[in-house]
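User: I'm preparing a small set of examples for a lab meeting where we compare how different chains pack in three dimensions. I only have the primary sequence for this one, and I'd like the structure in token form so I can line it up with the others. Please keep the answer compact; I'll paste it straight into my notes.
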Amino acid sequence: MTDPVTSLAEHYRRQCGSELDPHFHGEAWLREAFLAVPREHFVPDRVWWPQRGADGQYPLMDRTRRPRQWLKAVYRPGAPLITQIEDGAVLPEAPAGSDAFTSSISCARVVVTMLRHLGPQPGETVLEIGTGTGYSTALLCHRLGDEAVTSIEVDAGLAATAAHNLKGLGLSPRLVTGDGTYGYAARAPYDRHISTACVQRVPTTWLQQIRAVGRILTPLTTPLGTDALLTLTTDNAGGATGQLLTAVNFMLLRSQRRRQPWKELGWPRLADFHVRIDHDGQHIGVPPP
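Assistant: Understood. Below is the structure token output for the 289-residue chain.
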């Protein structure tokens, strides 16, 4: 008997790819990678839907019981799937009431957006913080080749799952179990650095392990009610400058879960923002020093 998930997966992947066309921004390599790498291979059989149901619980999506529902969820472009709650203390056996999400497989739209802004080029090397289930890692391997990709995961259980998933597709990037705060100096310097965990403060070790002219992409907490995707370009003098690209939502890097005051993180007070209204519309920003 044919597995319904296997028979429908390619159809849903192509459908999702079509919906994501505007987010590829003409990057043929990215669309090719998305269509070539089976996202469903990296999603556990049981995951939680990230929105509460009528009963106030986060529904459990079960591949064995409802394979079509599970597969549709995998390929919903804007739907992340929760793979871990409370660092694994809540088992994926039933709907969950806790919203202490600690790991997920990011929605396809965000994955594509991040890789597009990262812009990895053939011949470059990349360090990924937060292997998770290994999906983004596989997309990077498709673009750069296994040897060019290093990925680090703090959770030993997740790291083992990612290794299994990647091996199942014949992929063998360098996988490291450890605290991504410190990067991975053994293979530095890297041309690109991408984090799938949010930070309050970009670790200085990340700067130290990037080439003189390199790029760092990471979600950053903000005082504006959402995280934001931050891109940084190193300046050949030990620093980096960049900008916030778009709103996102990610779990915090474990070593940075304790919240720090915004002022200590370099954020201006809301009172420091300048608002100007004129014939061109509304303009909001921080006046130059």
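A couple of notes for your slides: The longest strand covers residues 210-220. The chain is about 25% helix and 25% strand.

User: Perfect, thanks.
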